[in-house]
Structure formats: C-alpha cells, structure tokens
Amino acid sequence: MKTFKKLLLVSAMSTVLAACGGSEQASSSSTAQPAQAEAQKASAPANNVPVAADNYVSPLPANAPTVNVATVGKTLPFSFSDNAGQLIGMDVDVIRKIGEEAGFKVQFHKKPWVNMLDSVETGESDLAISGISYTDEREKKYAISNSYAFNPSSLMFIREDLNGKVKDLNSLEGLTVGVLVESKQDSQITAANKAKSIVRYNSTYLLFTGMLKKEVDVIAQDSLLLNQLAKTNTEYKTFSVNYENESEPSARLVILVNKDKAQLRDDINKALAKIKEDGTLAKIEEKWLK
Fold first, then answer.
1. pLDDT, tens digit, for every residue of 102-126?
2. Which of 89, 184, 186, 275 is the most buried (most CB within 10 A)?
3. What is the CATH number of the domain that holds 119?
4. Which residues, if any, are the signal sequence (predicted)?
5. What residues contact residue 34 under an 8 Å CB cut-off, 6+ apart?
6. Rounded CA separation 196/200 (Å)
7. Alpha helices in the chain (DSSP H)
C-alpha cells in the first residue's frame, strides 16, 4: 500500500480537513468584504515559527545557504505532520529535492493560509509551497515558479438530485456555493456570477463540514484536497466534478517566491526541470497521489 494510503488511516481528521485555511473556530462569512479579510489576517498568528522536531538530514554541506519556506502544514497530501510530529507530504519532498539540486537547505515555517501568502509578499518567508495554484493576481505579487503538478478546481456536493446537473460554473444557478476565503475558487465563483449566494469559510474543515451540515449546496476547492476528503469520509456519499483542464494555468501548482528574489525563482526552475527530467518528481507524485 502506498505511503499516503497508510497515513490516511492514522491521520487525525483535524489534519485532513484544516487544509489551506486559518483558524478552524472562525465562523463562515457570506461575503468577502475587504474588512473581513483584513480581520482574518490580523487575528491569525504572524510570527515566523520554525517547524520543530525536523529529523530530516540534508545531504548538502553544513555551510549551504538556508531558505525559509512557508507552508500550511495541515494539508494532505501536500504538507502535514505524521504521528511523530515530522513534517511530511508531496510538497515537502518536492522542495527538499529542488533545494538539493539548487544547493540550498530548507527551513519550514507553518502558517495559516492567508499569513503564509502575506509572509512571502513581505519577505518574512523566501517562498511558499502548499498546494498553491497559479493565478494572474499572484503573478503580480510574487516571482512564480514553473508548474510542478496538475490540481484542477473541483465542485463537490452530497445532494443526489444535483448529480448530473452540476457540471461546471455555469450550472450553479440557484445554488449556494461554499469556498475558502481568498482562494482561487473564491475568485472563480465570484467572476462566474452564477451562484445564488457564496459562503466564504476560513478553513477547509469549515468548508467541508458546511456542506455536510447543508449550509451550502456545493463546495468548490482543489481536486486533490476534495479527493482525499472523500477517501477519509467514506460514511458520506459525495459527488464531485472538475471544472478546469490541464491547458488552464490556474489548474497548475506553483511555488511562490518573494518578488525581489527572482534569482532564487530561476534556480528553483532549473532544479525543477532537472527532477522532472530524471524522474524524481514523478516518483514523488506516485508516492503521495496514487
């Protein structure tokens, strides 16, 4: 059995569901007003706290430079803690291998979703990797790496009467849709202007449970995340449909680098090309996604 499937059996639900969000106790919001987003940023911890108990030993020399890497750290299969408290996951393996090729060590810092993004923009963190998709807005704020994985947006629901009816963003008329605040799906659902209303949640835990509680008809989130939620909650019958394809840039995962560190981004791209070419990246994806 693959590593990820083994870990699903022992991972706590809070780890599985608290993906890409802020405080799990925060209430959902019906509209994404700027003041609300700012309040969420202010209420979440902003300190750059290194991940404790990291037993990984880099093969690089002791004097190799260290890059500060921000990640949510609660997002299967991207970055999360195992039973021993070690940070593991696809993105953890990817950035470590990139660092080994590029000649830098990594120091992880776990942060809530919004704080993670802000920390790279301000320079508190050098880069962020945590199941982050490309968007035009992020292109303006960060030096963005080339893509390293395919992760399309997906719609999920438990209402059987919607099966076959909900197919894409244009089929959301008359429905209440839940999204993670400030996510790409938030922007996509808003721009489509088809949903009856949008409920914005501060974490994927609240987003998923909002669907189970029937606060919303449909939720929109990354396909890889929703697939894992379905696998770990088999007592619920869920339906899902992707609404992005591989030709769309927003369906690709990228690494966000501080805008002033374009050379670091270039070094990452060179190393990424190398681990794609030699099959290392494919092995990492096989380990965590199959």
1. 999 999 999 988 899 999 999 999 9
2. 89
3. 3.40.190.10
4. 1-18
5. none
6. 13
7. 3-10, 13-17, 34-43, 90-102, 113-122, 136-141, 184-192, 204-212, 223-232, 262-277, 280-289
